[in-house]
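Q: Structure for this?
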Amino acid sequence: MKRLLTAALSAALIASTAQAQQLNFDDPAEFARQRELLTAKANGPDGEPWAQHYGDQMADTAKFKKEGPYTICFSNAGVNNAWRVTGWTNMQAEVKLHPEIKELIHVDAEGSDDKQISDIDDLINGGKCSALIVSPNTTAALTPAVEKACAKLPVIVFDRGVNTKCPVTFIHPVGGYGFGIQAGEFVAANAPAGANVLMLRIVPGVDVLETRASAAKHIFKEKGLNVIGEEFTEGDNAKTKSIVEDYLQRGTIDAVWMDAGATAVAALEAFEDSGLPLPVITGEDQQDFLMKWKAEGFKAIAPTYPTYQWRTPIIAAVNVLKGEPVPGPEWVMPQPAITAETLDQYVNDKMPPLHHAMCGCEKLPDYPAAWGGQ
Amino acid sequence: MIQQTIGSAETPGTSRSGRFPKINPVFFVLAALLVAITLSNPNFVEPPGYMNFLKRAAPLAILAAGQIYVIVSGGFDLSVGSLITLTVVGSSMLLNNNADATWWVIPVMYAVGLAVGVINGLVVSFLRVPSLIATLGMMITLNGAAFMWSSGSPRGYLPETFRFFGRVNIQGIPLIQFLPVALLVLLSVGICLFWLMHRTNLGRMLHAIGDNPRAAQMSGVPLERVRITAFVVSSLSAVTAGILLGGFAGVSTDVGVGYELQAITACVIGGAQLLGGRGSVPASIAGALTLTAIFTLLNFIGLPKPVRDVVQGVILIVAVVLATYRRNRAGGT
């Protein structure tokens, strides 16, 4: 019996590693596709990128048609960083634009796969949901839960993905490769030949972050840049600053590439405190970084993973429940980068330092108070 | 009984004249690590090298110096990490980008720390909840409070006046070029806590309680009051560490994560006994510097991150084994 158990356990372990190996974060075809999308023209209303999409493929939703008012349920991976806080505020504001929505039920998984799996179970069993929106915590772990939900009601996935085609649509901006390409190409074009690049990443294993790093590495290799290190900061300012200080003691850093810019200011402070000129850096659309960029005028780019994408699942859910077709099985929307030329449009000292500028929220109800602005 | 305990806990070996006074091995380990760092990166002997190191180690060192009070008295304080987070997040919310508010925000945070310490102490002393559980509960509560307060994203920011303590270097000092304010904070807190633990009656009572609470109580030590004081010292050190960390790098919502375990590890590396009765402030500070030195050395060697984690873990276990080995030998003779 014991032996049998051991065998079963090892088989399960092998199976799970096989699953992990299936997740491929270095896919040349996807890299090329996203590179093209970055400059492609999107369909949909001008100036409303959250309602735009690439391609013509639509998902038929006639079978989900239902009389209102609707209860939309949302299983959220967490509200555990500033990006998600801005996004979650966007989503709540978007709901106010839709009188046919009676209620938005929000369950926060607090960054835990287990909790999110049981959250989704609870939402299905509660029987109140007209449609379910999921922002998965991690890709592989949430796949079975999403599949289970698909059997009961229309499911819309956004932000991070799952390994199943069962949701009505999967909403996301161009993607991690696109982000990595925008940042990587900027560094390659602005740093001296053979420059030393320090790569700062948050955590390993999240698809949208892994692909950012793999795309950038691809470009650095192509252009002959020297990657002097690849470090995980866990999104912590103190850790980020310490890491950069240590690298500065070991040698020169010409450029800092980041897979997410939340800690970009801390990285820059390490240079300041060491009395060194600021490097070429890639950040994100967080206000503190944009303000510093404007004030100091260093060479930078802010690729974004726009928080306006949090508006789209609500729009999609309402359309699905009305039986109107939506872009599917994937709803890919534009993913702009903020450059020195467009910086001024996004800097806003009335907004809090951790606000994400690419929120598409300026015309939503309760702006800017709901986002903490003045 | 008490006097004897103190004698053996504080300066083991001094009673046996003619032998070398035993120096805590943590100081040798620390020295060896510093030499290794210098070999792997000669820049370390320049002021920016070691001053940055000390500046970065200061929060953990202060935290360990506070934690040792609770450990010596026979408990743990797991709530310090979340108190650091609460200090950073709370300060940023209260300051709300207004530099002039620093003068009252810092005392408010110390008041919060005081309250947390008193509650921890009361729960452990009077409700008889083991400190591990009591402070674990406090940790979860404080994390929740920080999260509720900021809804995951602090709205304010830390102005330069607040960041003074953790970030600014006083320039133009002869010989060493500059002096980080954080180091001055560490020195003053360290001396204060050293004096309180090793030169006052409170320190003796702490050791006595940790060694044998019943015996201590019977010989007239006010058990509850001393325990509460230990938790208060630990909490106030956490607030100080939080102010330095917030100053060093600005607001993060998870700035304090893991610090409680690092502080306990630092104390153990410094030779503290986890069940109480033995430990010293300078050795705990040295333990914290050792821990930071391990992190720094592994960074300098430039091993890939997973290898570094493995090496770091093994070094920690070895350091604690060495500390335990030494203690057993000392206790046996």
